[in-house]
Amino acid sequence: MSIVTVQLGQCGNQIGHEVFNAICSDLHGTHGLCSKKENESYHDACKERFFCEEESEVPVARAVLVDMEPKVISQTLSMAARSGYWKYGDRSHFCQKQGSGNNWANGYSVHGPRHKEVIMNLVQKEAEKCDRLGGFFTIMSMAGGTGSGLGAYVTQCLRDAFPTSFILNHVVWPYGTGEIIVQNYNSVLTLSHLYRSSDALLVHENDVIHKICAQLMNIKQISFRDVNQVIAHQLGSVFQPTYTAECGLHYSRNPLGDLMETLVPHPEFKMLGLRNIPQMPENSLAYSTFSWPGLIKHLRQMLIANAKMEEGIDWQVRPPRLGSYIPSSHSTNKPLQFNTSIANLVILRGKDMHSVDLGSFRDPSLYTSWLNPQDAFNTWKTPRAFNKYEKSASLVSNSQFLLKPLDNVVGKAWNMFASKAYIHQYTKFGIEEEDFLDSFTALEQVISSYTIL
User: Fold this and answer.
1) Please, what are the domains in the chain?
2) Is residue 325 packed enough to be buried (19+ CB in 10 Å), middle (13-18) or exposed (0-12)?
3) How confident is the model over 393-419, as a mean pLDDT?
């Protein structure tokens, strides 16, 4: 089944480009441990997901690019074409001359309705090119105006137009120090609206990725492109083909459906986090060796201690004994010591992956009590290495990982709202105070649900 990617705003278009680059880089890499037949089936499954062929024989990304300013889209189209490995469709993009001014309401209430027909026509044409449509993967920021406001509106339109298709929103969480003054308003409005329309939200935090660039990738002057490439690598490690338990020796044909079935057992819980191990500069790979037991041990501790990368893990955190009561530290603003999970998915890529013992992830104490641990944990595997990593593991988790950042964003937005700061910038575009209150209420419910896991 094919995935149509919808790239929204500057952030969404730049990350989307890096995702397709990472996928192509993986396809053209050397994977000598795999048989020719294995490589061919991997290639075929990947291309069905992400690309369609044109007469030029250069794969064309199954993507729609949307921004209210032309500059980023123009750069993105030309960079893809110059790669020689892949390109975007000639008529798969939409832009205007004026942006949304970092105003969510402008993107949602003005640009969205005004350009709905042309944007949805582009999406429809892309969907019709798929022999079998598996769903939509949107990429967007939640801090600015176009990616967040227009992105929330387009997601709503996707749900209305394709009610039975899966929708996964990839959302980039803004830097805590602040990118724009109204980012907390924009974030609250974005998340609450996406929660209604989307099947799941896969979140990357800018602060975390920045730290990975500095500490793991040893990048001295970190650019947006460096950050986007780390995000793209992690996304590729999840969305490239794998064998699931149900598929046996055939690559999964329904990646988004499999992801939802595995990780989203209840519509109240839609927040997904992603961790990837190892991650290091390419020139260090030749001098590094990894064992599966070591990778799995680190990945499990990253999960339970809510560490976002393998450096600086708190090894003191332990799962609670089953049956013991843990008072919630959320209400006292202390950090959550233990990260309770609803569901986890581990994806293994590389040699000897069939011999890996994942019993530690089946420990019932890692999970909420209302779900059977047998249903709460799944694993996908492939012997094919990913992007030059001989062995690599990814963890997609539906857990309490985002509780503290979410609580902070809602709290900061509420403090601004209580003093009526900048509200007039939203009301002039039709977003009323009641809309803010509805959004606060929706996210307080999300916080409450995750807190009592």
Assistant:
1) 2-274 (3.40.50.1440), 282-321+337-403 (3.30.1330.20), 404-452 (no CATH)
2) exposed
3) 96
Q: Summarize the confidence of residues 426-432 as an average pLDDT.
A: 94
Select from 226, 238, 227 the least CA-distant residue to 205.
227
160 falls in which pLDDT band (50, 70, 90)? Answer: very high
Sign of CA dihedral 398, 403, 405, 410: positive
Task: Name, in order, each residue with C-beta under 8 angstroms of 202's C-beta and a sequence gap of 6 or more.
Answer: 168, 169, 170, 171, 235, 272, 273, 274, 396
Tell me, what's the pLDDT at 322? 62
Please report the pLDDT score of residue 246 as a whole number.
64
pTM of the model: 0.93
Residue 315 class from Cβ within 10 Å (0-12 exposed, 13-18 middle, 19+ buried)? exposed
